Amino acid sequence: FLPQVDSANAGRVLASDAAVFLKKSGLTDLVLGKIWDLADTDGKGILNKQEFFVALRLVACAQNGLDVSLNSLNLPVPPPRFTDTSSPLLLSGTASSDLPWAVKLEDKVKYDAIFDSLNPVNGLLSGDKVKPVLLNSKLPVDILGRVWELSDIDRDGMLDRDEFAVAMFLVYCALEKEPVPMSLPAALVPPSKRKPLSVPGAMPLIPSATSTKESHQSLPPVGILAAKTPLTQ
């Protein structure tokens, strides 16, 4: 992985290059920020080779449902998985188009009814319309932030009918005391959002200027839930 982010072969990785690369892990920006903070021990915004390997190890931990902490570094986990940023799927060369969607048909009907009641525009709901529904669950704001980031699969700040179903599915999982995953499992990606990977694991060696710009635009943390909302009412 190192040659792909250390194009100058200087033995170090800049934050901007690392951000573009780490986004391909499929993890949320909140989780990636925590990984960076743990790996960048001196806070200089640059990772040396050893620190970069710590970041990769933490990515693998998060992808396998382990805590993102230095205590997890010694636990046995498979290698981290990265995919092209044009695909929302977190796959390691396996075909996901055959996987049945985790959202059951009878649940989808209920989620669609809620979706329609929120007056979608052109088949999309803005964050402002989804926010009250999420907050109504009384789940912690950090959990709801992760639900939003995982369900907004195409990162457009809006939820379509299928993305909203993913959000509702994750909320109900959390209400049943099931942990919300750090990255979206392939089975939860709606069939409408699944893209075949022609070359598994293929990715550009040097991030283009446009992909760097886009990644920075999509990095702000939990946009719709960032404002402090009084939950006591």
TrEMBL record:
Family matches, as Pfam families: EH (PF12763)
EF-hand domain span: 27-62, 139-174
Keywords: Calcium, Metal-binding
Domain of life where this protein originates: Eukaryota
GO biological process terms on file: endocytosis; endosomal transport
Domain EH: 1-78, 107-195
Name of the protein in its database record: EPS15 factor
Gene3D superfamilies from the UniProt entry: EF-hand
One GO term describing the cellular component: clathrin coat of coated pit
GO MF annotation list: cadherin binding; calcium ion binding
Organism: Edolisoma coerulescens
PANTHER family in the record: EH DOMAIN (PTHR11216), EPIDERMAL GROWTH FACTOR RECEPTOR SUBSTRATE 15 (PTHR11216:SF54)
